Amino acid sequence: MKKITLIASLFAATSSFAQLIINEVDADQTGTDTTEFLELKSDTPNFAMDGYVVVLFNGSNDTSYTAVDLTGFSTDANGFFIIGSDATPGVDIALGPDNTIQNGADAIAIYTGTAADFPNGTPVTSTNLVDAIVYGTSDDDDPELLAGLGETVQYDENLNGQKDIESLQLDGNGSFCTAAPTLRATNSCPTAGVNDFNNKQFTISPNPAQGFLNITSPLAGEKKVVIYDVLGKQVMNATVTAERMNINQLNSGVYIVQITQGTISETKKLVVK
């Protein structure tokens, strides 16, 4: 996995930190999967994606099977961009008629670079990584994909037993929920309840953050917060009772935040600018 200084320099070179993210993935549908899609989202509308590439990784051997060069393309007026099967409504880059995005355990990543940097069979890597998701459909976790992309959670599109009619959607707090697809529209992750501990127990904000981080929970009491860099090195360890936590000591970069309260533990991806 790459160092924070490398991440910061790469994002500075593209003039915007964490500008492009994976917003929604629908990898499994009824029948032959003719409308699979990956939805990207930019912080700003009509964002030129020159110098970015999307890479799809096969969990069976943890190597790439498709690379999509984004140079020459831009997100739309709402910041969305769709990659998927030919019949996907409004698809921007079509990959083929069906079964274009594997069901899992697999991964999708955004890098700075070109498709030529990722010929089929390229081993999973975090070098020049911008964003990633490891996912499946009730599959065992793939530790090589998780470690290779600096991720801690493999998201299950079949979480509700509805893999054919639900997608994985970014929930705004660094996690993904499962819900009916929201192609080129606001994601529809349900609101967390007190007893809902499936990646919805804690929220962190703002994200990206600078100087401080708000950590909220529907439960009262202390929260243990441990923060790791992308190399897996612990950089902060604190027990907090208030919502606001000082993170002035963190440099710009991508971090993993582990929050524990009682018997509940959850990890979140944090961007510090």
CATH topology of the largest domain: Immunoglobulin-like
CATH domain class name of the largest domain: Mainly Beta
Extended strand count: 18
Give the low-confidence spans: 1-18, 192-200
Broad structural category: mainly beta
Give the CA-based shape.
globular
> How much of the sequence is in beta strands?
35-45%
Oligomeric status: single chain
Secondary-structure element string: HEEEEEEEEHEEEEEEEEEE
Number of domains: 2
Amino- and carboxy-terminal Cα gap: 19 Å
Overall radius of gyration = 18 Å
Helicity range: under 10%
Widest sheet, order of strands: 6-5-2-1-10-11
CATH superfamily of the largest domain: Lamin Tail domain
Q: Can you name the CATH architecture of the largest domain?
A: Sandwich
- Can you count the helices? 2
Keywords:
273 residues, mainly beta, Immunoglobulin-like, 2 domains, 6-stranded mixed beta sheet, 5-stranded mixed beta sheet, 2 helices, disordered N terminus
Structure explained in plain terms:
- This protein is mostly beta strands and 273 residues long.
- It folds into 2 domains: 4-179, Immunoglobulin-like (Sandwich), CATH 2.60.40.1260; 203-272, Immunoglobulin-like (Sandwich), CATH 2.60.40.10.
- Helices cover 6% and strands 38% of the residues.
- The chain contains 2 helices and 18 strands.
- It has helices at residues 4-13, 143-148; strands at residues 20-26, 37-42, 52-58, 63-69, 80-84, 93-94, 106-112, 129-136, 154-156, 167-170, 176-179, 203-205, 212-216, 223-229, 234-240, 244-246, 253-261, 264-272.
- Strands 6-5-2-1-10-11 form a 6-stranded mixed beta sheet, with no helix packed on it. The chain has a 5-stranded mixed beta sheet with strand order 4-3-7-8-9. It has a 4-stranded antiparallel beta sheet with strand order 15-14-17-18.
- Strand 12 and strand 13 form a beta hairpin.
- The radius of gyration is 18 Å and the shape is globular.
- The protein starts with a helix and ends with a strand.
